Amino acid sequence: MKTRYDTRATGHRFNKGAKVWLWNPTRLKELCPKLQSPWNSPYTVVNMLNDVMIRIRRPRVTTPNEDRYLAVTAKRNRRSTASDLSRQLSSATGTTISRQTAYRRLGQIGLYARRPVRCVPLTATHCRLRLAWSREHALWTPQQWACVMFSDESRSSLQSDSRRTFIWRTPGTRYHQENIIERHRYGGAEVRVWGGIILGSRTDLHIQIGTMTSQIYRDVILEQHVRLFRDAVGAQSVFMDDNACPHCANIVSECLQSKDITRMDCPAFSPDLNSVEHVWDMLSRRVAARQPPPTCLPELRRALLFEWCNIPQDQIHNLILSMPRRCTDCIASSGRQTMC
Fold first, then answer.
1. pLDDT at residue 50 is higher than 50
2. Which CATH superfamily groups domain 123-165+191-333?
3. Least packed by Cβ within 10 Å: which of 45, 135, 188, 235?
């Protein structure tokens, strides 16, 4: 069998009569004397007369136009898989490639398969209100943000629904008992937590079993936490919460007015504009990292209270001072979701 090696394939000009050797990598396992690497390519050619070593690569399957077709198709439908893209290319041009080749071609132009970011859905009204709020507070100074108490609610369950947990396992052991995390469909028992942060301090963590109603929010959160905390930090503080239904009830608004508590409304569906949202992420990570993890509600309650008190205050400090950047990013995105 004759094999043609020309300048286009090898980058080396072969003279007539020159002796070349084609090495079989299945027979020769030692290191290549030129590259000090194994002879792992079936396209290794050695010119014994000139003592040069040439590696011949396989010809590229796709053309530049087909590479651009893959990129355009992937950008038009970003949820298509590499197998889908290879099939579309085959039906459009007749060129058959594997999904690994499609993945490599996209990676060469900076397109990689990644999980999409999950954000709350925003309507045009939400974007308009977020943009107006960000423009109003974009020029606030750190001294003004230092007077704002950010508050919010969250939930915590015995079984975390986070998919950030990784394990070390060998191939073929996916369903071994030590590699399985058992989890109920709805996360098991859970509690509601409320907390507030301000520059240099934080409120006590309130743990609520059951639904947070407007009456509970007024009698417990406002009376036992917000009012006492406002008296401790000073009357110049501003209370910020979201537009959840229990927070917007008439009895809550009347209570805030009677206690002379200044309120700052946060736009709806705007977790990126409330610094306390990142504190909940810190809290959930710290609770999930406990060994052994909580197995009942009393243990979960103790873990939440302990980890809440041990969150470093300098991290909360950095979150509050990042509010100008958050407002700037929201303005730049015209009120859409941001990476904050």
1. no
2. Ribonuclease H-like superfamily/Ribonuclease H (3.30.420.10)
3. 235
